[in-house]
Amino acid sequence: MSRRVRIIILSIIGIGIVGFVIFQLIPASSISAKFATPGNPPVTHTIPWDSPQTEQLARSACFDCHSNETRAMWYSNIAPVSWLVNKDVNEGRQKLNFSTGRHLEGDEMIEQIQKGAMPPAIYLPMHPEANLTAAQKQQLIDGLQATFGG
User: How many domains does the chain have?
Assistant: First the structure.
């Protein structure tokens, strides 16, 4: 490899590293409020679960985006991935929040699980505990039905 090619490659790598570092300094909230870090506000609603198993399945598959008990993963602090994670959590909490009692509608939760829309496929590779078996999905559906009706 010629010296000129090496200099070009190293320059591209250097520019990429500098760009990545600068990216980290851009606050997500400056792009849009929906990308802002949601944090974990207080839990203000208690759910009378039908069983500990239903609660555990819901916590495993739903709570990271649909509660105020989000567990931050290492990659959720690296832009631009952090922006996407924050957006998903903010939108998830707006649609349904177990911690505040927001939109806890059994029918809708069950329908989303049955359609395969929840948990989303993009979420599962980094969260294997949310990748429920068919039997676990049915147990969660039955538990949601018993807990919230629908």
Answer: 1
Assigned token pair, 102: 């927001």
Distance separating alpha carbons of residues 144 and 112, to the nearest angstrom: 12
The pLDDT tens digits of the residues spanning 110-119 come to 999 999 999 9
The answer to whether residue 3 sits within a structural domain is no
d(Cα 31, Cα 44) in Å, to the nearest integer?
29
108 part of a folded domain: yes
CA atoms of 117 and 121, how far apart (whole Å): 8
Do the domain assignments include residue 14?
no
Residue ranges of the chain with pLDDT lower than 70? 24-37, 150
In a domain, 19, yes or no: no
Q: Specify which residues 102 forms β-bridges with.
A: 97
Print the domain residue range for 77: 32-148
